[in-house]
Amino acid sequence: MDGFFNDLSLMAPAVLFNIYFAAVSIPLGFVFAVFLALGKASPNGLINRLSRCYIYAFRGSPLFIQFFMFYSLALSLNLAFWKPWGVSGFVLHPLFIGPLVLVLNTAAYTAEIFYGALRAVPRGAIEAAQAYGMSPAQQFRRVTWPNLIRLAWPAYTNEVVFLFHATAIVYFALPVVGSQKDLMITAKDLVERDFNTYLHFSVAALYFLAVSLVIFFLFGLIYSRLMRHLPAQPRMRWAPKWMR
Amino acid sequence: MTDDIAFWLGYLTNGKHLAWYASFQFTIFAAVVGGAFAVIFGLLGATLKNSRLPPLRLIGTLYSSIVRGVPDVLFFLFFPLAFEQTVEWFVATQICSPEAIAAQTAAWPPCREANWLLGSFEYLMLASVSLGLVYGAFATNVIHGAMRSVPAGQLEAARAYGMSASQVLWRVHIRQMWVYALPGLSNVWMLLVKATSLLSLLQIADIVLWADRLGAPNFCRLLAWSTTIGAGATTSSSSSSTSW
């Protein structure tokens, strides 16, 4: 039992790294995903094809490989760019590259969710907006977007939890700098020290479960806020589908 | 021109590259065997979840929700280590003499005789089972949902023909279920194929590990860089000879 509490306190700073990765990538990925989803639905052939290719590439390849690719790309550009500019310590830092790759990755998954929701926005609502003489920008802001975000929110919540789970592999692909270790690296180091696999990995799993539940709770609050106009508030499913 | 072709032919067929091409077998093996295990564990889990006995139902529900609630990489690393340690612990209770336990200085195993040395094939097999366990939890959910969407009339008809419960399950329920399960299962298999990129974390020399090694100049810089980041300086070591 002592070991358990000891692990809890050892991993408390470690979970902050995972939370940092998720907290930085979620808002940026959200904004990027909105543009990607609009791009995928765009009638412009070039924009359409570019967004489709981007989404396909990032959803079709493992995140682990994406980390490796972007890290070696950044390394190979080091002598040409980062070093002369004096930013290599910043650009090559895992706390920068980690969120960068996570943003690019989660934007592709989120864009697919938003694109699906965009196509599910009721046709009649948009026609009504056109009939009122709204400009395209007004249509999007007042009709399409509120419908889209309500339709997409439950799936987006799952995606956010998945992104939080994906932060577990950041430090397997990127170098650990000093004592900046996330949950998985802390657990792995502890296991390598005393071989107590069951204890250390279970505590790390508890942390992941706890933060996932907090995410579900917060996003559930936002969902009920989004749905406040409906008399019978549909609760978000407490048992998530965990699938992307 | 012909010189170029000869150079590239020679370069792409040197020993390291041939070893890299050969390592595809491990990834493909893990994907195929892991996919098969995922379906087996998925069927088992869904049957447990559908069971009439509450304890069995609880086991099925716990399996699918806990394994899906933690990152795949955590369980993927945990299972092979935990399985190995459990076997070693069991062997130790049978063969370790008190003297041997007293003579053991390392934290694990309890005595030297109980040590279980795993070869690369055993590790690959454990990794495949591990992948199967992780994605079997996803498959449990998919198959459970598919079993619930089989029309009740078909099961009633089977019962009306006088089939026993196990006959209804095997001859009608499971066979009618595939139509609904296959789209979801193909999703699970796609996730699993992407997750095979994590094999290198268990020190299996798969395509990812070789790709990483073949970028050896990068790797040198990575090592040099990660040791010097504290000083804020980035060493640009040229591609020196490495152990591989």
Automatic annotation (TrEMBL), chain A:
Domain ABC transmembrane type-1: 15-219
Record's GO cellular component terms: plasma membrane
Signal peptide segment: none
Keywords attached to this entry: Cell inner membrane, Cell membrane, Membrane, Transmembrane, Transmembrane helix, Transport
CDD domains: TM_PBP2
Any Pfam family matching the protein: BPD_transp_1
Top-level taxon: Bacteria
Coiled-coil stretches noted in the UniProt entry, renumbered to this chain: none
Residues that span the membrane, as ranges: 20-39, 60-82, 94-115, 160-178, 198-223
InterPro entries: ArtM/GltK/GlnP/TcyL/YhdX-like, MetI-like, MetI-like_sf
Primary location class: membrane
Compartments, as annotated in UniProt: Cell membrane
Topology in the lipid bilayer: Multi-pass membrane protein
Protein family: Belongs to the binding-protein-dependent transport system permease family.
Protein name: ABC transporter permease subunit
